[in-house]
């Protein structure tokens, strides 16, 4: 599936979701990359191949470009985002990445 990782996430009023002291818009790719890069207790048993796969996917989404992702990548993104991001972010990611 093709995904535009430059998509700006919205707040509940439909306006750009802002974050940080400089109040920059939250971009889909950056939000996903931060979720993929987060360290979770369950990651301790990951094989090098699993970590490398997550690393490559993190780099792909961080660029904020339109990219083709596999169904396996989509599942990894959806699962990870649900574990580490608030509902306002996770809900939008789940709507965009099926």
Mean pLDDT: 97
Reported for the largest beta sheet, the result is: 2 strands, antiparallel
Contiguous runs where pLDDT drops below 50 for at least 5 residues = none
Class based on secondary structure composition and strand pairing: mainly alpha
Count of spatially separate domains: 1
Task: Name the shape in a single word.
Answer: globular
> In percent, how much strand structure appears in the residues?
5-15%
**Strand element count:** 4
Helix content: 40-55%
- Order of SSEs, N→C? EEEHHEHH
**Strands ordered across the widest β-sheet:** 1-4
Q: C-alpha Rg, in Å?
A: 13 Å
Describe this structure in a few short sentences.
This protein has about 100 residues and is mainly α. The protein has four helices and four strands.
């Amino acid at each position: 599936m093709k995904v535009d990782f430059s998509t700006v996430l919205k707040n509940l009023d439909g306006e750009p979701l802002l974050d940080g002291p400089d109040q920059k818009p939250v971009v889909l790719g950056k939000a996903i990359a931060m979720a993929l890069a987060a360290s979770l207790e369950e990651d301790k048993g990951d094989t090098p191949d699993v970590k490398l796969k997550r690393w490559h996917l993190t780099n792909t989404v961080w660029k904020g470009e339109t990219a083709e992702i596999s169904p396996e990548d989509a599942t990894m993104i959806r699962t990870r985002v649900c574990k580490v991001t608030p509902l306002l972010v996770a809900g939008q990611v789940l709507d965009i990445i099926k």
